[in-house]
TrEMBL record, chains A, B, C, D, E, F:
InterPro entries in the record: ClpP/crotonase-like_dom_sf (IPR029045), Ech1-like (IPR045002), ECH_dom (IPR045004), Enoyl-CoA_hydra_C (IPR014748)
Gene Ontology annotations for the cellular component aspect, listed alphabetically: mitochondrion
Protein name in UniProt: Probable delta3,5-delta2,4-dienoyl-CoA isomerase (Ech1)
GO molecular function annotations of the record: delta(3,5)-delta(2,4)-dienoyl-CoA isomerase activity
Biased composition (Gly residues): 88-110
Pathway stated in the Swiss-Prot or TrEMBL entry: Lipid metabolism; fatty acid beta-oxidation
Superkingdom of this protein's organism: Eukaryota
Keyword Flavoprotein: no
Keywords of the record: Fatty acid metabolism, Isomerase, Lipid metabolism
CDD domains (alphabetical): crotonase-like
Enoyl-CoA hydratase/isomerase domain residues: 26-235
Length: 301, 301, 301, 301, 301, 301
C-alpha cells in the first residue's frame, strides 16, 4: 500500500485522510487545508469516528496525526461554520444518528433551556476529540505552523507530541471570549509540569513557540520543518509498531490510568490487567527475539 | 486614581496596601517592611479578607501581589508574634468574629486537647492563605529577595509566579522543627513537574535561586530586579484585564478544577460551567473585536 | 561503626548490604553484583523486609540506596530465575511465611486460574518494592551504569534521585513483551512533568541518558561517576539527618499525601497530622538552635 | 395518540415498544415476550438507542419501563443467542456502526487477545444498559414475574423501582458461572442500605420476593399484579410530568451526582448547575401556580 | 441556668434561641414561629454563626435543634423575603462583613453574569446550613409538623433525627420549580439506604409521614408529639454529654469521614486522628469509671 | 475430616480453631472462651494470619466465623492485656517478624513520638482485622451473646452477618473514652442504610438487640440461638461453596469494589476483571449443569 493512497477501509471519510506508510502504521492527516484544517461539526464527528475505527483495527499498531498542507495543523474551530451549526445558530443542533446530538437550539427558550443545548453540544464535541485519547493504539501528534485553540485540545489527547520549528501555538480561546472547553483546561495541568506556565499561556492566550513548548515539556522534540517532524514521528511509530502490541497497548492504558488515579488504585488495576496480559504469547516471543537477536513477530491485536 | 494612593475601598487594611495601577488592575503589596513582611495573626486574617474582597470587586480583573520594601517578599511567619498569639502562647487563640478562631489554648490540657487548639489554629491560617487561590480573578505573584517558608505557601496559591533575580527561596520549615502546614506540601507536588526536586528542597530546607526556580518551572520568568519584575507582572495583568472576564475567570476556575480532578470529571464540569458562560455577551463582543480590530469592552463581572 | 561493615541489625540479609556511614545514616547497597544486581524473588522479599526495618529503626533518619559494583544499579528482573520461581515456572509460587504468597501456579488450570496466580505474584512483588516509598525516612536513590526495567520501578519509589553520568536508563519492559507492572506506569506520570516524554520512553523502551533524565526532572543531579554520586547522596542525607526527625518524616508523609490527594483533603490531613507533631520538643529545640547558632539535638523517632 | 399505538418517532425499533399513555409520558415495553424478553445483542443495542432518544425527546418528561407479556420482565441474557453473537461465538463481534464493537473474537488467539474481545463486548453491553441511567428524564421501572440476572442490572439503572407481587427476583449470574458484569455489582451496594443482604443475594444467587425487595428498599412499592403496578407507575410518572422539567431533570442529575461524589464536590456542582437552572421561567411559573392554584405550564426541555 | 432563659453568650441572636437544659447541653430553637420558622437571609446567616459558636463552646457537648411553636419545624425558605434579598431581587446581594456575600445582583447583565450572582448566593446559603454538619459536637434534630424543603436540607446535616408523629415532611422544591440546592440532593443518597425511595420523594415532592421516615431510616424514632420528641432528644443528648468529649467528638468526625471516603483512606485518617486522641486523659478516666462504677468527669474540650 | 477436629493445616494457631464441616467449607471459631474471646495482641496477629491462609487455601470456598463458648462472640479488646502490650504499656510494642510492629513505646518521648507508637499500633491492629475483608472467599459471621466493640469492627469486615436472638451488640468504645478505631467508623456508614441509626449507636454506645440489627439491615437474619445461627450459616456457606469459585470470588471482589468506587470506575474494573474470568472453564461447566440438572464440579481456585 502506498503511503499516499488512502487505506481502503478509511476511504469514506471526507476530512480524514488515512494512509499506511509502513507495516502496522497509520498516518492520519486532518484534511481541509483550504480552511487551514479548521473544524466544522461534520469534521469533528469524523475525527471521533476515525479514532474508534483505528482503535479496533488489528492492522494498526501506532498512529501518527498531522495536518495536511503547509499553513496549519489546525486553526481551530471553524467559527463561520459554528455560527450555522451549533447552539449559536439558533436552529437546533439536529441529530447525526450517533445519539449525542444537541436537541435544543437557542433560538428561543430561557437560559436554562439554552444551557441544555450548549451542554449537549460541548459534550458531543469533547466526546469526539477524546476518542483520540481512548484509542488503544499509541498516537503521535505532529504540530506545525498555525496550531491554535482546538489544536491544543487535540494535542493534549495524543500520547507523544512533536513539533516543527515554525509551529505557532496558542490556547487562543480567551481571545474570542470563552474558556477552552474541549479538553485543554482539563488535561494540560496533568501533562505539563509547570502550572505557572500553564496558567500563563491559558490566561493570556499569547503565542508560544515550538522551542518554548519543548522547554516546558509540552512537546518531546522540535524538528526543522513539518516534513522532518512527520518523518521522525513515523520512525518513532515504526519502532513502536514492531513491538508486542499487548505490551504497547497495555503500557498506554496503564500510563493513562496512572495519571488519573492514586498510586494504590493504579497498582491494583495494573495487577488485574497484567494477570491476563502476561498469558499472551508475546512475552515468550519477545524473549526469544532478545536471545536469538531476531525480530520477533506478534499475533494481531 | 494614582498607582500610589491606596484604593479607597481597601483603605482600612493595616498590612495590605492595595493600589490600582491601571484599568481593572489591583496591586496588592504585603506591607510590613520593617519586619521583612513577616506575618502575624492580624496580618494573615487581613490577607484572607483582602482576597475575599478582591474576588468580589467588579472593578478588579487581575491582581498582582508583591512585598513592600527591598529586603523581602516575606520572611515567613513572625515567630516572635507567633509565640504570643497562637496555641504556642498558652493563652488561647481568642476570636476574631470570623468564626474560625481556635478556642483552645495549650496552656493546659492533655495532648488531645492541645491538638484541637492546634488544629483550629492551622485551619484558620490555611483558610486565610487559600483565599488567594479561591479568588476568582487571576493572581500574579512577584517574589524578590527573602522569600522563605510562608512565602512559598503563598506563592503556591498564585496562578502565575515571577521572580526578581535576587530572590532567595527556601521551604524553610524543617529548619525550625516542623513540616510546612500552610499549603506548600499539598500544592507543590501538583504545580511543579519534578517530584525529586520538590522532595529535595522541602526535606533539605536549602535555599534555591530564582534561576533554579525558573528551570524547575516554579516561576515563569526571572527579571533583573524587583521593580522590573513588578513591571512585567503589571503588564501581564493588564493584558489579561483587557480580555473577557467571563473567559478569564472561567479559565482560572477550570484549570484549578482540572488540576485537582480526573479528566472525565473535569470535562463534565467544564460543559456545565460553559453552558451558561457561553450565554454571556462576551463571545460576540470578542469576535466582533477580532473582526473589527478594535479593542472590545466587556460588562463588569 | 565503619562505613564498610554491615550494621549488625542488618547482618542477616543476603542481598541487602546495609552500612552506616555517619550518624543516623543508612546506606543500602543492592548486593548481587555478579548478576548485575538482577532481582530474584528472594531478593525482592528481602528488599521489602529491609525497608520495613529501616522505617522502624530509630537510629536511621535518612537512607541512601545504590547498587554494588560498577556495572549496574540493577539490570532489572532476573529473567532466568523468574522462569523457575513465579507463575511462569508452572510450579506454583509457594509461600514465604509472609502470607502474600501466590498459591496458584500456572502449570495447569484455565486462564482465570492462572490469572489468580499472576495477580498474587505481581502484588507480592509490587508490595515489596513499594515498601521503599512507605519507609517513613527519606530515601535517596543513586543510579549508575545499567539501570533498566525494575531499576526505574525502584527509583520511582525514592524521594530524591541522583545519577552517575554513565547511567543507562530504560523502561525496558515492552521490549520483553509486557507492560511494566511493578510501579513505573503508576508513578512516573506523577513524578515527572512532561507526559509526552513519559509516554515516549515507556512506549519505545529506548535508552535515555543521565543528562536527559536531569533535563526532564526525573533525577535532581548528575555526577561524574558513581562514587561521586554516592558521596553527594550521603552528604545530602547527612544534612537531612541532622534536622528534626519529626519535621523531616512529617514532610515526607505530607508530600506523598499531597501528590496523591486533592488540595482540600491534603490541607485537612496536614492540620490533623501537625496538631500532634507540633507538640514535639523539636520545634523549641530547633528554634533554640537557630537563635544560639548551635546544632540542636533531637530525640529519637 | 392512543396508549397502544407506538409513537411514530419510535416505530423503527424491533424490541422496544414505546407508547405515550398521557401528556409528556413514555411507556417503554421490552417486547420479546415469546423469549421471556431475554436480551440478544440487537436488543441491547436498541435498548441503548431508545434511551438516548428518550433523553433528547422534548415531548417526554417521564418514562415507565416494563416487560411485555405476563411471564417475565426479562429472563436476562438470551444464552442461546449469546453463544452465536459474542466472543463466545468464536467468530468475532462484528460492528454495528456504533463504534463500540468488539473487534476480537475468541476463536483463536491467546488469553490476552481473547480478553480484549471480552472487554469490548462487556463495555458495549454495559454502555447500552447504562443509557437508562444517563437518560435525563426520570425512569420508573416495573418488575413482574421472572426478573433474573440482567433484570437486576436494568432495574439498578432506574430511578424508582416498583414490583408486582409475583415478581421472582434473582441476581442469577453466579449460577451460570460468572460474576454479574452489566452493572448490578457496581450499583447495588450504592442503592440498597444493607450490604449484608446485597452480598447474600449476589453470592447465593437465590430468589427473593417482591416483599423482601420492598423490605430491603430495593423497590418502593409492591402491587397486586403487573397491571396494577404499571398503572401505579404511570400515575407516578404523570404527576412528575406535570412539574417543571428544569426542576425534575436537575433533581435527577444532582441526586445521581450526590450518590457518586463527596458532599463537598456535590454542593459545588449543585451551585454551578442551579446558577443557570434558576434563570429558567419555571420558578416564577411554578410559584404563580402555587399562589393561583392553577396548574402551571412549562416550556419544553 | 434555667432551660428557658437564653444562654447569655447566645443572647444577641434574633432568630436562634439557645438555652441550656442541662450540663453541657444546648437546645437551639429556630425562633420565628409567626412565620412558621421560614428562613430569611438574616436567619440563615445567624444559623451558620450559631453553629460556629456552638462548635467552639467548651461548655457544650451535645446540641438539640427544634423549631419554636407548634405549627412547624420550618416551612422552608421565606419566599416573600427571598424576592427582596437575593439575586431574585434584582438589587444585588449586599454584604454582611462575613465575606461570602454575593456581589452580583441579577438586575442586569447577561445569563453568565446573573449566574455568578446565583452561585455566590447558593454557596453562602449552603455554607451556613453546612455549619451544622461541621459543628464538632453531636447534633440531634427534632422535626415536627410542617417540615418542608429547607427542613430536609437542615435535617440532613444533623447526626441523629427524631420526629413527632404529626410531622409533615416533603422535599418540596420541585413544586416551586427548582432542584433543591442547599444540600438535600447531595446528602440524602448517602444517609438513607433506599435510593428508590430517595428518588421518589425528591422527584415527586410528595408529603411523607414520620412513620414512613422511620421505616426508611431517615429518622431514628417517632414520638407522640413535639414535646415528647424534644424530651427524648434531650435525654439522648444528656447521655452523650456525660461521656468523654474526646471520644464523642472523634466519633462524629470519623463517622462523617467514613461516609465520604474510601475505607482505606478512612482507616488511615482514623489512625492519625487517634494517635493523639488516645493521649487524652479520657481513656484512663473512663476506664476508672467503669471499674469503680462512678461517673467519670472529663476535662473541657 | 470431622467437623470437630481442627484442620491439620491450621493446627498451629492458639486462638483460631479451624474445622471443615463440609466440602470446601471452613469454620473458624474465635477460641478464647475463658476470656469471653477477648482479643490480646497475639490473638489479633493470629486473626490476620488465619485469614491470609484461608484466602489462599484452594480447599476453602466459603468461611463461617463464630465465637467459641456460649457467653460471647467477643467481649472486644482484652483491656488488661492491652495495658501490658501496646503503647499503653510504656514498654514499646516489640516486633512479630511480620514487619508491622510498633517500634515506639510511649514510656517516654513527647506527644509526637508517642503518636508514632500509637499509629503503628493502630495500623497493625486494623491491618489484621481487615484481612477478613481482603480474604477472597466469602465470609459469613455469626454473632451471639456478648458482641461488643471489636465484635462490631470484625462483623463489619464480613460479607454476610447472622445473629442469635440473644446477641447483645454495642459499639462500646466511647464508654471507655475513645473513638472506635479498628474499622467500625469507616465501614458502618457504608454497609447500613440509616446514617441516623449509625450515629445513634456509635455516639451513645448503647446496646442494641439482634432484632434491631435485623431491622436496620446490619444482620441478614436472626436465629433462635447460637447453634441454629451457626447451622444456618453453614448451610448458606455450603450452598455458596457448591458454586463456581471464579464466579463467587469475582462477585465478592466486585461488590467490595462497587461499594468503594464510583459506578463508572467500577464498571471499567468489572470489564477488565471479567475479561479473563470469563475464560475459565466454569461458565460452560455451570451451564452444562443447568441444562443437565446435574451438579457441576469446578476446578480449584
Amino acid at each position: 500500500m502506498s503511503a499516499l493512497t488512502p487505506l481502503p477501509a478509511y476511504s469514506t471519510y471526507q476530512f480524514m485522510h488515512v494512509t499506511s506508510p509502513g507495516p502496522y502504521l497509520a498516518h492520519l492527516q486532518l484534511n481541509r487545508p483550504e480552511k487551514l484544517n479548521a473544524f466544522s461539526r461534520p469534521m469533528w464527528l469524523e475525527f471521533g469516528r476515525v479514532f474508534r475505527q483505528l482503535s479496533l483495527d488489528e492492522d494498526v499498531r501506532a498512529v501518527v496525526v498531522s495536518g495536511a498542507g503547509g499553513r496549519a495543523f489546525t486553526a481551530g474551530l471553524d467559527v463561520v461554520a459554528a455560527r450555522e451549526e451549533g447552539p449559536m445558530s439558533g436552529g437546533g443542533g439536529g441529530g447525526d444518528g450517533h445519539g449525542n446530538g444537541n436537541g435544543n437550539g437557542n433560538g428561543g427558550g430561557d437560559p436554562a433551556r439554552r444551557a441544555k443545548g450548549w451542554r449537549g453540544h460541548i459534550e458531543e464535541f469533547q466526546g469526539c476529540i477524546s476518542e483520540m485519547e481512548r484509542c488503544e493504539k499509541p498516537v503521535i501528534c505532529v504540530l506545525h505552523a498555525i496550531s491554535l485553540g482546538l489544536a491544543i485540545d487535540i494535542a493534549c489527547c495524543a500520547d507523544i507530541r512533536l513539533a516543527a520549528r515554525n509551529t505557532r501555538f496558542a490556547v487562543k480561546e480567551v481571545d474570542i471570549g470563552l474558556a477552552a472547553d474541549i479538553g485543554t483546561l482539563a488535561r494540560l495541568p496533568k501533562i505539563v509540569g509547570s502550572n505557572s506556565w500553564v496558567k500563563d499561556v491559558c490566561l493570556s492566550a499569547r503565542d508560544f513557540t515550538a522551542q518554548e513548548a519543548l522547554q516546558m515539556g509540552f512537546v518531546s522534540a522540535v524538528h526543522d520543518d513539518k516534513d522532518k517532524a512527520v518523518e521522525a514521528a513515523l520512525e518513532m511509530a515504526a519502532r513502536i509498531a514492531e513491538k508486542s502490541p499487548v505490551a504497547v497497548q497495555g503500557t498506554k492504558e496503564l500510563l493513562n490510568y496512572g495519571r488519573e488515579n492514586s498510586t494504590a488504585a493504579s497498582l491494583r488495576y495494573t495487577s488485574v490487567w497484567n494477570s491476563v496480559a502476561l498469558q499472551a504469547g508475546d512475552m515468550p516471543a519477545a524473549m526469544m527475539g532478545v536471545f536469538s537477536k531476531r525480530k520477533p513477530t506478534f499475533e494481531k491485536l
